Amino acid sequence: MALRTVLVSDVPSLPESVYGLSEGLELSKPTSFRLPGFSVIGHRGIGMNVLQSSDRRTRGVKENSILSFNSAAKYPIDFIEFDVQVTKDDYPVIFHDDFIYSEENGIVNESRVTDLSLSEFLLYGPQKETEKIGKTLMRKSKEGKVLKWDVDLDDSLCTLQEAFEQVEQTLGFNIELKFDDQTVYEREFLVHVLRSVLQVVSNYAKDRPVIFSSFQPDAAKLVRELQSTYPVFFLTDAGNEVHNDERRNSLEEAIQVCLEGGLQGIVSEVKGVFRNPAAISMIKESNLSLLTYGKLNNVGEAVYMQYVMGIDGVIVDFVEEIIQSTTLMMIRPPPPSSSPLPSPSKYDDVAITRPEFSQKEISFLLKLLSQLIQH
């Protein structure tokens, strides 16, 4: 079920002129890349944590942890998505937020993840050695409240190397290369960070499927320049937020980033696709794959609509529920017992082709979805 890739023996060494690598060169065109059918991808493993939510599902398993990744691997999915940052001593670690919080003697302390060494980062939360007690791990919500990171099933923070070594080998990794939206990065710094990540991938990925993605357009282009083994996708919220970097503000701009950088696909916030469905054909005509993320991807009907529209996959938080609902919608039902057709067992797990809808029917369904988006 998982996509297989061919490894190179090592990350290509870079010429001294790497910081001007694309100057004067013809821009590369995307090579074709397709996921293995319609893919359900686990967000940060089995789903992200929302500590202030009343929905217990968002506090079940610690996100971005080995436990979460292997929990997702129990379901028939091809990939999980997770966030990678690089510590100040050049170790790729898995953590979503730019800042990490702890509390000591009633005082909340804040540190930027990339300002920590690996040993400092791993001191937060549960420790691998049971006799050790880590720093109390906390998280700042979008509303600005700092909350204790309480989940039903906790786990230690982890590195990218540990994920490659300890997670079910057939499960693909969608590695989001994480950078601070508020920071302007020099090319030399981006190259240094990306080479740290690529070295771990080269050493430990073996034949595991890997996709890179990033909201940072320059980082996305660079990781494509630095290697050609693994596909690279550009992440965009497709206009749901306005960024100073115009390349991040629409699907049309995302297509241009991909064409300029020879990237293989786009990962869009799902509302942006539903608001601009014409962009799907533009993306396909540009020989690009399209994935989506966002809260609506936890609604089975919205996921099925994307399947109908030709989207290649969805990143979801409620992996079990979405797998169940999409299976019901996308698998051929068994014939009745009186049918002269072969026995039901021969129809188990036989995927049907995408249903055909007229443009008028799709427009009607999209109007219904647009009403859902606004509520």
Automatic annotation (TrEMBL):
<dbReference type="GO" id="GO:0006071">
    <property type="term" value="P:glycerol metabolic process"/>
</dbReference>
<comment type="similarity">
    <text>Belongs to the glycerophosphoryl diester phosphodiesterase family.</text>
</comment>
<keyword id="KW-0319">Glycerol metabolism</keyword>
<dbReference type="Pfam" id="PF03009">
    <property type="entry name" value="GDPD"/>
</dbReference>
<protein>
    <recommendedName>
        <fullName>glycerophosphodiester phosphodiesterase</fullName>
        <ecNumber>3.1.4.46</ecNumber>
    </recommendedName>
</protein>
<keyword id="KW-0378">Hydrolase</keyword>
<dbReference type="InterPro" id="IPR051578">
    <property type="entry name" value="GDPD"/>
</dbReference>
<dbReference type="GO" id="GO:0008889">
    <property type="term" value="F:glycerophosphodiester phosphodiesterase activity"/>
</dbReference>
<dbReference type="InterPro" id="IPR030395">
    <property type="entry name" value="GP_PDE_dom"/>
</dbReference>
<feature type="domain" description="GP-PDE">
    <location>
        <begin position="38"/>
        <end position="326"/>
    </location>
</feature>
<dbReference type="InterPro" id="IPR017946">
    <property type="entry name" value="PLC-like_Pdiesterase_TIM-brl"/>
</dbReference>
<dbReference type="GO" id="GO:0046475">
    <property type="term" value="P:glycerophospholipid catabolic process"/>
</dbReference>
